[in-house]
Fold this sequence. Notes:
The structure holds three protein chains of three kinds.
Chain A: H1 4-59, E1 69-70, E2 75-76, H2 79-110, H3 113-126, H4 131-158, H5 173-197, H6 201-209, H7 214-222, H8 227-243, H9 246-251, H10 269-276, H11 283-315
Antiparallel strand pairs in A: 1-2
Chain B: H1 2-42, H2 45-49, H3 63-94, H4 97-112, H5 115-130, H6 135-159, H7 163-171, H8 176-204, H9 208-211, H10 231-239, H11 244-280
Chain C: H1 2-14, E1 23-28, H2 33-46, E2 51-56, H3 59-68, E3 73-76, H4 82-87, E4 93-108, E5 117-118, H5 120-128, H6 137-140, E6 154-158, H7 163-175, H8 177-182, E7 195-197, H9 199-209, E8 213-218, H10 219-224, E9 228-229, E10 231-233, E11 239-240, H11 244-256, E12 278-286, H12 292-306, H13 323-333
Parallel strand pairs in C: 1-2, 1-3, 5-10, 6-7, 6-8
Antiparallel strand pairs in C: 3-12, 4-8, 4-9, 4-12, 10-11
Amino acid sequence: MATVAQTVPVRARSFFRNLRAGDQIAYLITFLFAASVVLVTTVLVFELWQKSELSIQRFGFAFLRTTTWDPVNDEFGALPFIYGTIVTSVLGLAISVPLGVGAAIFLSELAPPKTSNTLTFLVELLAAVPSVIFGLLAIFALVPLMRLYVQPALIKAFGWSPFFKGPTYGVGVLTASIVLAVMMFPYIISISREALIQVPREQREAALALGATRWEATWDAVVPFARLGIVGSIFLSLARALGETMAVTMVIGNDPRISASILAPGYTIASVIANEFTEATGDMHLSALVELGLVLFLITIILNGLGQLLLIVTAKPGTAR
Amino acid sequence: MLRLWRSSLNNVMLTLTGVCAVVTASALFLILGYLLWNGGKSLDWNFFTKLPLSPGDLGGGMANAIIGSAKIVALAALLGVPVGFISGVFLAEFSNKGMADFIRYTADLLNGVPSIVIGIFAWTIIVVPMRHFSAWAGGFALSLMVIPVTLRATEQFLTQVPLSLREGALALGASKWKSVATVVIPAARTGVLTGIILGVARVSGETAPLLFTALNNQFWSKGFNEPTASLPVMIYTHAISPYEDWHRQAWAAGLVLLGLVLVANIAARMVLARGAAAQRG
Amino acid sequence: MRSTLLIAAVMAIGFPAAYAADTINAAGATFPAPIYQKWFQEYHTAHADVQINYQSIGSGGGIRQLTEGTVDFGASDMPMTEEQMGKITKFKVLHFPTVLGGVVPTYNIEGVAATLKFTPDALAGIYLGKITKWNDSMIAKENPGVKLPAADITVVHRSDGSGTTFVWSDYLSKVSEEWKSKVGSGTSINWPVGLGGKGNEGVAGQVKQTPNSIGYVELIYAVQNHMSYGEVKNQAGAFVKASFESVSAAAAGAAKNMPADFRVSITNAPGKTTYPISTFTWLLIPDKIENAGKRDAIKAFLKWMMTAGQKDCEGMSYAPLPAAVVAKEEKQIAMVK
């Protein structure tokens, strides 16, 4: 005969057992989903690697330094595309960073809060604009501008140097860089502004107390503190710019050649894949294109990793010396 | 003398940075302005209702691209959001630190894959075995881009739910999963929803992953098994063509696409702001 | 609630009647794309249950997608090589010539509205990068009345795998030893100079928007876009402008010597009135099509194309198939099972 005092623990035990089972099921389900994310990423990297096997076997590391891209004779070298990708992105940074950091400084330090929030909102919306729309505007608005006014002016002023030679195509490396610069604004501004806001107020106030002008307080006391965060934003924007496909493909001129002149057409990794992938009739051609994709992926991983690292370091208070 | 130099430098630099801010913020207005002007001229009823015609024949539209984009994006959301969300729940609530770091790193890796490479992957594992281009492949490719964004947003907002709420639920006798499902997730729902909307809006504008997955289509695509037209791909092919009429339509499509994306973004941000204010106040 | 309605609506549109026949998917050359798209639209209007979705992604694309099996048939201006055909194990590829066209040198030169005369050496020199200015003697001496500017020539070529490129480079290989040894012919080649445009459309677009440029496109693209295109000196020494008549003249000779599988190149054909850069273009049809509905639709379309469809050619500046070729082709339709 079970007393109440005995049945309660029995009921409680089975109740708790069910509870644990429920938790375990929840754990299992959520774990499976998370594992699937890891699985799909692994399969992605594996597929990329496998499909590039043919090209890797054939060309080895020479792939990275050869310049010939000859589908007729199955000779493939990645250098012109690596060059084009890096040059357009770096040039884009050269345009975007001064403007972006300047804007971030203004928005975090010097602007009244309401203006700052509104302008930041507008800049961040820029990140939502699809790449193909940038490309659309670039073809019809930017390219004629470059061809008719900007490029001739640059040639007139700097034509003696090897960087500004050649016919005024309108399209080319410089045009692509300008488009990339505009696409990078929101990332540089948003992240740098966050980094600057996190700098403790005492820094600024101490400088002002010592008699610095507002600019001096900002530039000499606050900005160096946020240095790592700003650099982190640069790495992250660079990683994005490297993978940009549509906007760049539409204005870079599609010429796999390395020229010193930034007015010349060029080619990036993403663009050549977009143009040639559906049509690569040879297996070697296809494999070379996938290998290019793999190279791009690896460069992006490294840059993203560095950028994230820098941001994590700055998030810790009292750092950035 | 030095003081004059320093104060002029001060004024110059303040103005310069202000100019930087105005220039960068105005980029958005320039883009919108151009699209409104050129796209607005070209937007007509035909655009929304007719199929594309061969170049030279006027009066065509992009009705199939609008529906096609809707289908592909809906598929991407249906595939990507649950995976990203539930994985985010795992990360925030159930996993230990080591696993969480690893999964987060993997999600960041996936996020960093260039969109064209995602296209290659989707082509390899869906288009080739299926032996045709399809909306499935396009939706799959885009879902790969939705997953990391959703995962991060879910994790971020779930971890922000205050400890007091969780402990309250547990103290009342709820099991772990019950407290997560009935208390923590609803508390974070505004933020998570915002992240999802932003992520889906972003992929709706992506072109590169669709180039070799959904390809394109002159006609209506039946079901999800056929090549499907989409707004971004149409904009691309029409913009690089030599036909004036196609250029016109590219502008109109650009306006529609940008309009949708911006509306989604602004709405999401407003929801987030209001949600955050409600939580604070 | 609203979102479920929205999803339901999308699904409803996405899964309409399975009653209509499947869409037939095809992809390939941009060269004949204008007339193909007209044909497929016309045919669909006449036969509402047949939908042929043609994507012009370049001849290379057509060949590749056919090899992968992702399209029902392909289209190319370059006949498939033995190697390419050998890669396909599931079926044999049958080449069906559809129309003839000409590849023209189209240009956009400031202040020049006249039709320029080009010798084969001039074209080879421009595309090899040896002739860099418009007022170079090799161009000027054939065009005495025209005031050519001393401007740099912007060369435009294809960035994608193109049958049009094949025809152009095949012609240049036949007329220039230097081109043949340095570059060769193919759908994707190692261009010595120039910008790349995607598709015939892209090249036309680029030339139209870039002053002092030259590109090669199918005749219809230059005509539809009101662009200037030049005369080319043929084997007999006459300067001929591409047209319905001059391209047909090139075909006339070919009909007699047409091989059984229809794979032939007619660039630099003999004859006083022939246009030297002419070509057939082909539909690449598998000889085994499993889906009976698709197979019958494709065969019916092919028959229509060779007979009724040919009347669209003249209006679009393509040349129709010679009667002798059509007779042989009709027999080949039977080989599609």
